[in-house]
C-alpha cells in the first residue's frame, strides 16, 4: 500500500537529523560509493599513525567504526548536537573530542600530528592543517566536489552555475600552504531518492544543499516532486566526491 504525501512529509519532518548517520534512508534512497573506499583508507592510515586528528568529525561515525585508533587520537566538531554524539562514541575508544568551529584556528600546537583527516569538511583551512602537521605528516580527506547533487538543488532553486569546490582549487590552496599534493581522485556517483520523505530528510540534514529549506517554504515544489516520483520512479541526482592527499615536506619549518 502506497503511503500518502502527508504521511511521508510528517514522518520526515519529525525524525532527528543529528549526527552524520544516514541509515534512516535505507530502502528509501541510495548513493554509489567512491571506488577508493575512504573508510578503508583511513583505517589503514590510522593503524600506522602515532597521533591523529580528525577535523569536523560530525557525530564521530567514521572514527568509531575503525578497528583501531592511534595512541593519541583527537577529533574536532563545532555543532553542539554532533559534538555530544561524537563524545559518546569516541571517548570510550580513548579519543579526545574538542569543540572547534570550522572558521576558528585549530586549538593545537604546531607539528602535533603525523596524520590529519577529514570527511566532507565544510571548509578546509589549509594553512592550519599545514601548521599542526609534523614534517613528513599527511592530510587525507574525502571532499564534496563541484555541483554535487545539482539535479536536486536546481529543482528547487533553478540554474546555479558551475559552483565552487573544484579539485584543482584545492590543489592550489594546499600548495600555497606549503603542502605537497601526492594524490587526487574525482568521481561522480549516482543517487536515487525513492520517496519525498527521503528528499525532505536529506535536505534537512545536509542544510547547505538548499539554504533555508523548509517544507512550508517549498510545499508546492515538494508536492510536484512527490507526484513525479510516484509516476516515473526514483528522482536521480549525482554526487561529486574527490579524494585529496597532501604531505608536509620533511624538514619544513613550522
From TrEMBL:
<dbReference type="InterPro" id="IPR029063">
    <property type="entry name" value="SAM-dependent_MTases_sf"/>
</dbReference>
<protein>
    <submittedName>
        <fullName>Methyltransferase family protein</fullName>
    </submittedName>
</protein>
<dbReference type="InterPro" id="IPR013216">
    <property type="entry name" value="Methyltransf_11"/>
</dbReference>
<dbReference type="GO" id="GO:0008757">
    <property type="term" value="F:S-adenosylmethionine-dependent methyltransferase activity"/>
</dbReference>
<feature type="domain" description="Methyltransferase type 11">
    <location>
        <begin position="53"/>
        <end position="139"/>
    </location>
</feature>
<dbReference type="GO" id="GO:0032259">
    <property type="term" value="P:methylation"/>
</dbReference>
<dbReference type="InterPro" id="IPR052939">
    <property type="entry name" value="23S_rRNA_MeTrnsfrase_RlmA"/>
</dbReference>
<keyword id="KW-0489">Methyltransferase</keyword>
<keyword id="KW-0808">Transferase</keyword>
<dbReference type="Pfam" id="PF08241">
    <property type="entry name" value="Methyltransf_11"/>
</dbReference>
Amino acid at each position: 500500500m502506497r503511503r500518502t504525501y502527508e504521511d511521508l512529509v510528517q514522518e520526515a519532518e519529525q525524525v532527528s537529523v543529528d549526527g552524520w548517520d544516514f541509515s534512516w534512508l535505507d530502502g528509501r534512497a541510495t548513493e554509489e560509493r567512491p571506488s577508493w573506499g575512504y573508510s578503508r583508507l583511513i583505517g589503514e592510515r590510522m593503524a600506522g599513525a602515532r597521533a591523529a586528528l580528525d577535523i569536523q568529525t560530525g557525530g564521530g561515525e567514521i572514527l568509531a567504526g575503525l578497528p583501531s585508533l592511534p595512541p593519541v587520537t583527537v577529533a574536532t566538531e563545532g555543532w553542539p548536537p554532533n559534538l555530544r554524539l561524537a563524545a559518546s562514541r569516541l571517548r570510550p575508544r580513548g579519543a579526545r573530542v574538542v569543540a572547534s568551529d570550522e572558521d576558528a584556528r585549530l586549538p593545537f600546537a604546531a607539528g602535533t600530528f603525523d596524520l590529519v583527516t577529514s570527511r566532507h569538511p565544510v571548509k578546509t583551512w589549509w594553512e592550519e592543517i599545514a601548521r599542526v602537521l609534523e614534517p613528513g605528516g599527511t592530510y587525507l580527506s574525502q571532499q564534496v566536489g563541484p555541483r554535487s547533487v545539482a539535479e536536486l538543488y536546481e529543482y528547487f532553486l533553478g540554474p546555479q552555475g558551475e559552483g565552487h569546490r573544484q579539485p584543482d582549487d584545492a590543489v592550489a590552496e594546499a600548495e600555497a600552504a606549503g603542502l605537497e599534493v601526492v594524490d587526487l581522485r574525482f568521481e561522480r556517483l549516482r543517487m536515487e531518492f525513492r520517496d519525498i520523505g527521503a528528499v525532505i530528510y536529506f535536505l534537512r540534514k545536509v542544510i547547505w544543499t538548499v539554504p533555508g529549506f523548509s517544507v512550508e517554504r517549498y510545499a508546492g515544489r515538494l508536492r510536484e516532486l512527490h507526484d513525479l516520483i510516484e509516476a516515473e520512479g526514483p528522482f536521480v541526482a549525482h554526487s561529486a566526491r574527490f579524494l585529496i592527499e597532501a604531505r608536509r615536506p620533511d624538514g619544513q619549518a613550522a
